[in-house]
Amino acid sequence: MTDQKAYFFDMDGVLFDSMPNHAIAWEEVMKAHGLSFTARDCYINEGRTGESVIREAMWKARNRDATPDEITQIYSEKSAYFHRLGEAKAIPDVAEVLKHVQSCGHQIWVVTGSGQRTLIDSLHSMFPNIFDNQRMITAFDVTHGKPDPEPYLKAWERSGLSKEQCVVIENAPLGIRSGKAAGLTVYAVNTGILTREDLSQADCVFDSMAELLSFLRTQAYI
Hints:
alpha/beta, 9 helices, six-stranded parallel β-sheet, Rossmann fold
């Protein structure tokens, strides 16, 4: 018997199939600035704030911190490039997962390291009558992004529930680490190019949203 009452969904790679476009945008813009950042780097680092990603890439390439101007410039270019690639579609079957969780009367949260306003604004049009702006934790709400526990701790604190009643839905290693460091149960759904081993710190790993949905439907809710 489970008493889960809130689900904290990551956004990129969980709600939106946006990671391929993020990978292209990051790789091309980093290259233009003489920095190395591959598609796998993008997936492995998914969940970090853009500032954190740029700082780490600068340290690896030039053994120094990025300046505020460099961070602003690179992230602005990356955001513009990402926007030119077009709107990301929903992850297959995630709408059904959201509707199921909603039908059970549970809280639905978005907890993302993204500051990509185009995606955040698309949540209501892509998934009508699902999300509440008061139940979103984004890059604008935290000092420390994933893998720090702060994003998920903020969602948990605002939920008003016990940690045992909250479940994280993630697709990335840093997000899994963030959720576990916050003391929460984490379900990982492998929607991208990573391996199951990359996601092995999660409590459960699913190969698709359809598989997660089947699992959730078998759970008995109090």
